[in-house]
Amino acid sequence: YAVATITNRIYDPTREAAYRSQSGSLDLHFDLAPGAALVFSAGSQSVDRQDPLPASTNVQRTTGRATQADLAFVLGRPGFGLTIHAGGFEERGEQPVPFTGTDEGRIRHSGLGVEATFQPLPVLRFTAEAGVQSDQRHLDPVGKTASERTDHAATFRTTMNLGLPLGFRMYAGGGQGYTAPSLPELLLNARAGGPDL
């Protein structure tokens, strides 16, 4: 709506919101030897959206793009499996700001991980996972000070899975995880003057 009050509403079809997302990925699997393989994955995603600005007849366009790549070495033997993978992604985006302009930001994420599986009996399986990752971000909000920050984090998890009679299963596990904030969250927080996420 160009005008939206209790007594007067004027609809403007040129101010409709629109959202478009496109993504694609490619996986290549190379068998190196019996039980050993190399897997390469790459992908990209783009976002294009249009949002009507409040109290204005204008439409603000927001765009974003993310690319990722991952390389994994997989070793599988009876009763044992090992996967070592390294990869990362880069995300760039813009966030509209009413009457001001566009906030811009970039995130670069890289990580290295190891996963191991040990199955001494057909009904008993142990798994262990560990990883380290790094996130480098650059935020440039309009009218505010640009900032750069790099964070490092470690993750791990161990589990035990035991099959029991009558279809029952006992599962136990524990670990520590980490999830990086998304680029839109970081830009909104920087605009509001909040602490580093």
Question: Could you give a quick summary of the protein structure above?
Answer:
This protein is mainly β.
Give descriptors for this structure:
mainly beta, eight-stranded antiparallel β-sheet, 197 residues, two-stranded antiparallel ribbon, single chain
User: Beta-strand percentage?
Assistant: over 45%
Mean model confidence by pLDDT: 89
Task: Please describe the biggest sheet, giving its number of strands, its sense, and whether it closes into a barrel.
Answer: 8 strands, antiparallel
Number of strands: 10
State the distance separating the first and last CA atoms. 35 Å
How many distinct helices? Answer: 1
| Overall radius of gyration | 24 Å
Uncertain stretches: none
Helical amount: under 10%
Give the overall form.
elongated
Order of helices and strands: EEEEEEEEEEH
Structural class: mainly beta
Strand order of the largest sheet: 3-4-5-6-7-8-9-10
